[in-house]
């Protein structure tokens, strides 16, 4: 009788990640880093000593979140963090107030760019979805 290894694609495969530091990317774009303490069959996660990390360009800031419970359907990606590789990344940590300001400025610049792009497309005769003059 031969043994064939089975690979699990369910929540059961998280057992190797227990008590390890993970990065979890959520559906709304947030990135949460914490130690996986528990999970269930729906891949609902409990992270301890967690923080929300916000990236802007080559900088980041952290907001401490403590114990963080994540509903499994909100997880887009999760992976173990290699501490040695993390320390060698060319990123600089800034105070969260500075990161939040940079994030606001980045969002405003994107909004201006999108508005200009939509205006130029409309001038060329293209329909622009979600504009004020749309009838739907």
TrEMBL record:
Cytoplasm found in the keyword field: yes
Record's subcellular location: Cytoplasm; Cytoplasm, P-body
Gene3D superfamilies: 2.30.30.100
Primary site of residence: cytoplasm
Quaternary state and interactors: Component of the heptameric LSM1-LSM7 complex that forms a seven-membered ring structure with a donut shape. Interacts with SLBP; interaction with SLBP occurs when histone mRNA is being rapidly degraded during the S phase. LSm subunits form a heteromer with a donut shape.
Function, in words: Plays a role in the degradation of histone mRNAs, the only eukaryotic mRNAs that are not polyadenylated. Probably also part of an LSm subunits-containing complex involved in the general process of mRNA degradation.
Organism: Coemansia brasiliensis
GO biological process, one term: deadenylation-dependent decapping of nuclear-transcribed mRNA
GO CC terms in record: Lsm1-7-Pat1 complex; P-body; ribonucleoprotein complex
InterPro entries xref list: Lsm1, LSM_dom_sf, PTHR15588, Sm, Sm_dom_euk/arc
Domain Sm: 9-84
Cell cycle found in the keyword field: no
SUPFAM superfamilies hit by this protein: Sm-like ribonucleoproteins
Entry keywords, A to Z: Cytoplasm, mRNA processing, mRNA splicing, Phosphoprotein, Ribonucleoprotein, RNA-binding
Molecular function via GO: mRNA binding
Similarity comment: Belongs to the snRNP Sm proteins family.
Descriptive protein name: U6 snRNA-associated Sm-like protein LSm1
């Amino acid at each position: 009788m031969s043994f064939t290894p089975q690979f699990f694609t369910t929540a059961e495969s998280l057992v190797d990640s227990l008590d390890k530091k993970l990065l979890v990317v959520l559906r709304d774009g947030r990135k949460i880093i914490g130690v996986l303490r528990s999970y269930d069959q729906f891949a609902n996660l409990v992270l301890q000593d967690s923080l929300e990390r916000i990236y802007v360009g080559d900088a980041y800031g952290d907001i401490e979140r403590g114990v963080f419970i994540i509903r499994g359907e909100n997880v887009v990606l999760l992976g173990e963090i290699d501490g040695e590789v993390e320390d060698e990344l060319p990123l600089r940590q800034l105070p969260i107030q500075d990161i939040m300001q940079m994030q606001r400025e980045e969002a405003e610049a994107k909004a201006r760019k999108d508005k200009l792009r939509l205006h130029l497309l409309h001038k060329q005769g293209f329909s622009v979805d979600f504009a004020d003059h749309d009838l739907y």
